[in-house]
Design brief:
By secondary structure, the protein is α+β, with helices and mostly antiparallel strands. It has a single domain, classed as Alpha-Beta Complex (Phenol Hydroxylase P2 Protein), CATH 3.90.56. Helices cover about 20% and strands about 45% of the residues. The chain contains 2 helices and 7 strands. The protein has a 4-stranded antiparallel beta sheet, with helices on one face. A hairpin with a 3-residue loop joins strand 6 and strand 7. It is globular.
């Protein structure tokens, strides 16, 4: 089992995104650092547009995630509704 992760800037825009990620990925671990939030999960981490929209109360384009993205680890599988980090074997 390998971990994947995403690191986002710690700010008011990312707070509901992090909450959405945690809601959709119960095995995710959150590490808060002074200016960054790192979310790590075993094997797969999925960000769902509809969950983020429910948290922020407006339409959300997953491309907005890139504004606050610092780094990530894993292969990216992406469409209009989900962005997943996973290691392809």
């Amino acid at each position: 089992m390998s971990n994947v992760f995403i690191a986002l800037q710690a700010n008011e825009e990312t707070r509901p995104v992090v909450e959405a990620i945690v809601a959709d990925n119960p095995l995710a671990r959150i590490e808060h650092q002074p200016a960054m939030v790192r979310i790590e999960a075993p094997d797969r981490l999925t960000i769902r547009r509809d969950t983020v929209e429910a948290q922020i109360g407006r339409a959300y384009d997953l491309q907005e995630l890139h504004i606050n993205l610092i780094t990530l680890s894993g292969n990216v599988d992406e469409d209009e509704d989900t962005l997943s980090l996973v290691w392809h074997g």
